Amino acid sequence: MRILDLSSTIDASAYEADPVTHEVLTPAQGAQHMSEQVRLRLGIDFDPSVLPDSEFLSLDRISLTSHTGTHVDAPSHYGTRAAYGTPKHIDAMPLEWFHNPGVVLDLTGQGTGVVGAAYLEKEFARIGYTPQPMDIVLLNTGAAEHAGTQRYFTDFTGLDGDATNLLLDLGVKVIGTDAFSLDAPFGDIIKRYHETGDRSVLWPAHFAGREREYCQVERLANLELLPPFGFTVVCFPVKIGGAGAGWTRAVALLDD
Questions:
Q1: pLDDT tens-digit profile of 228-240?
Q2: Could you give phi then psi for residue 51, rounded to 5 degrees?
Q3: Which pLDDT score is estimated for 211?
Q4: Which of its termini does the chain have fewer beta carbons within 10 Å around, N or C?
Q5: Nearest 5 degrees, angle CA 161-CA 164-CA 170?
Q6: What is the Cα–Cα distance from 131 to 228, expressed in whole angstroms?
Q7: PANTHER family given for it (predicted)?
């Protein structure tokens, strides 16, 4: 079995709409920090110079949103109320959702905006496979090529409401994308709303989660390396109490 990493890197040096801060305490600084903390909290003096190389352990302090890097959106991210009941936070989602057969649909070359149900149906015909209940559907939009740049947040393809509901009608519970969002970019959505006055263009993929319980995995990577189907996706979310999303180290399991 081969394991393919489908996760993007959380990197404080890369461009982010919500910037990441990453402070590193070196092992030497960690020794000083430990010495100060045991004196403050336990009333015990400890000289860190007795440690090998005067080093203890490194420590990383990171400030970021739960939507930075590859992450799973929980139903509670989509709104406070849902047609099916109280939306669950990420720590309450069933783990069975996140270890299932995967399907990749090709959205590359579709430009900035959305594709609809008709496009997805053409993809099913092209690959010779229709997603089954509990399959994890991954959208290869090509957006990962621009990860770490401003363009990653402004130029990509999302799903409209009909396309999202088509997948949910098939029994899909987890939909993933290599783009910043399963919806179109914010600027594109708002422009189309101003042009048409049609509220249905406002974040339809996310707002579908107010009617149907499902999760999104956003900011994936390496989807172009996967076959259309015949592999397994594992994307368990980090268990953050009361959170609308949790990071994941998403991978694909392939039989060689």
A1: 999 999 999 999 9
A2: -75, 155
A3: 98
A4: C
A5: 135
A6: 11
A7: CYCLASE-LIKE PROTEIN 2 (PTHR31118:SF12)
CB atoms within 10 A of CB 200: 11
Structure tokens at 91: 């720590």
Q: Where are the alpha helices (DSSP H) in the chain?
A: 27-42, 117-127, 161-169, 186-196, 204-207
Picking from 140, 214, 228, 219, the residue whose alpha carbon sits closest to that of residue 175 is: 214
116-125: long-range contacts (C-beta < 8 A, 24 or more apart)? 116/160, 116/162, 116/163, 117/160, 117/162, 117/163, 117/165, 117/166, 119/163, 120/163, 120/166, 120/167, 121/166
List the beta strands (DSSP E) in the chain: 2-5, 21-25, 59-63, 71-73, 99-106, 113-115, 136-140, 157-159, 174-177, 215-218, 229-234, 245-247, 251-254
Mean pLDDT in each 10-residue stretch from start to end of the chain (256 residues)?
A: 97 96 98 97 97 97 98 98 97 98 98 98 98 98 97 98 98 98 98 97 98 98 98 98 98 94
